[in-house]
Design a protein that fits this description.
Length: 147
């Protein structure tokens, strides 16, 4: 069973730079055709400082963590036993090219179902820009298969 005393654990924060090329690549990868995501002139005309990040782009920023999925080491989870359960986003302010985003991740819940055959780790990530403005909150759930 996963250690429920780890609920509330905050991982070390880290920062990530938001680059134009990465935003354009992500927009194309998800099939986004709105020119504000690939044409800086169109983005500025639409009222953005530069190219805005498409929805869900913060998932890319998570890859800048110095450790790959640090929750696995903390809780002693075998990567072969995990599934991505859920992902949700709340947006408060745009992220744009040139921003520096601080990422903070915390475990908000650990619970089990089916007599412990499935365990769930819920994490909340907060993304704050260089001006101290919260831009996005994301909630994700990892499912650990114990059978």
């Amino acid at each position: 069973m996963l250690d429920k005393s780890r609920i509330g654990h905050a991982f070390p924060s880290f920062t990530a730079e938001v680059e134009k090329g990465r935003l354009k690549f992500f927009a194309k990868a998800i099939g986004e055709t709105n020119p504000i995501y690939t044409d800086e002139v169109a983005a500025i005309r639409a009222g953005y400082r530069s190219l805005p990040a498409p929805p869900t782009f913060t998932s890319v920023l998570d890859q800048e963590s110095p450790d790959f999925l640090p929750v696995l080491d903390l809780l002693g989870i075998d990567i072969a036993k995990i599934l991505h359960g859920t992902q949700g986003f709340e947006y408060f302010a745009p992220i744009c090219a040139g921003d520096t985003i601080r990422v903070e991740v915390c475990i908000t819940d650990i619970f089990d179902k089916k007599g412990g055959a499935l365990e769930f780790v819920v994490m909340e990530s907060k993304y704050t820009n260089q001006d101290g403005q919260l831009t996005t909150k994301a909630t994700s759930t990892l499912v650990v298969r114990n059978s």
